[in-house]
Amino acid sequence: MGGPLPLGDPAPVDGRLPGDLVVDADADFGVYLHVPFCRVRCGYCDFNTYTASELRGARQDDFADTLAAEVRLAGTVMDAAGGRRAASTVFFGGGTPTLLPPGDLARMLDAVREEFGIAEGAEVTVEANPDTVDDAVAGTLAAAGVTRLSIGMQSARPHVLAALDRTHDPANVSTAVSAARRAGLDVSVDLIYGAPGESLDDWRASLEAATALEPDHVSAYALIVEDGTKLARQIRSGVVAMPDDDLQADMYELADDLLAAAGYDWYEVSNWSRGVDHRSRHNLAYWRGTDWWGFGPGAHSHVAGLRWWNVKHPAAYAQRLAAEESPAAARERPDETARRLESVLLRSRIREGLAVSEILGEGRKAVASLIADGLIEGADAVRGRIVLTRRGRLLADAVVRALTA
């Protein structure tokens, strides 16, 4: 069920935005749809997700209609704030969106289309468990306007999947990719490295299996131990060992080498694609700090510098909307210093980097030493951009600390 929501100012019951908020009607606008359902809870997961036994007062088969009600409320809120914008990207995340019938996902997308519009050429992504995708599911999603399927492969090794509490059949990854291809969808596969008991050879096998599928995009994330998870409890009690930082660094370098050899270019610390056209435009919008509205329990939103987040539990979320109230729990408006820090934190992660001119004070003085230490690209810095080297990607947090000192 994830960690606690952040603190913030109370959000108004009707969801209205502050009257002095200046919304750029021409800026890109993303939509995130959070589907919080999972068959089982993975031991490492800290997302806002719920198994059937945890729903208590919420019905999975009512969810599409409940979320559509939030979309309609958002339309009226945006009208009062300067007008609605067509979505340039839409992302169904979770949880496991494909636990819902594909027709439910289609109705949720139709609600976005009816209230906001979907821009021509928009990227529309659905995250999927490999066990839940066949030709019928992929075809229905494609007919609804989905353009991209992000498949949770995680590993090709059964013992690694077991360590992660993943229950899907590894063979179904290929089945899901083939179904998506036949439906005309772009395909991304998601991998996790550093699980308990995973060797470098295990990780190599997973990378080779992933590239053999010839997806358009690959995400590879280091396993992170989040407080409150089953994995954190197992480590604290000594049942399993803490992920080894040096092994994870070796795994990252192996991923970068093998993916580059297979024709994938890194464009964000944990993401590679076959050319610019297959990058995740939705996630790039997050890293660039553009506007998005997050729908669903616990979803976060950002519009014109204002942030807010919804109540977490699906039952509380449904109750608010049944009463024609906003599900927003709280909101905040970060000051200039906080926004600048976040911009450096996020934009330094992507291949395009950020302008040297955005770095102030002692951070600007640190650029030369970061080049000398091999953490940022010297040639790009001369051209006025901060771009991480591969070593810099491994030490991205340290780079950010130096740039924001």
Automatic annotation (TrEMBL):
Which protein are we looking at?
A: Heme chaperone HemW
| Signal peptide region | none
Origin species, per record, is Microbacterium phycohabitans
Its biological purpose is as follows: Probably acts as a heme chaperone, transferring heme to an unknown acceptor. Binds one molecule of heme per monomer, possibly covalently. Binds 1 [4Fe-4S] cluster. The cluster is coordinated with 3 cysteines and an exchangeable S-adenosyl-L-methionine.
Q: Where is the Radical SAM core domain?
A: 23-265
Question: Which NCBIfam families did the record assign?
Answer: hemN_rel (TIGR00539)
Q: Which UniProt keywords apply?
A: 4Fe-4S, Chaperone, Cytoplasm, Heme, Iron, Iron-sulfur, Metal-binding, S-adenosyl-L-methionine
Which subcellular locations apply to this protein? Cytoplasm
Q: Respond yes or no to whether keyword ATP-binding is given for this record.
A: no
A matching Pfam family: Radical_SAM
Q: Which family does the record assign?
A: Belongs to the anaerobic coproporphyrinogen-III oxidase family. HemW subfamily.
Q: What is its main location?
A: cytoplasm
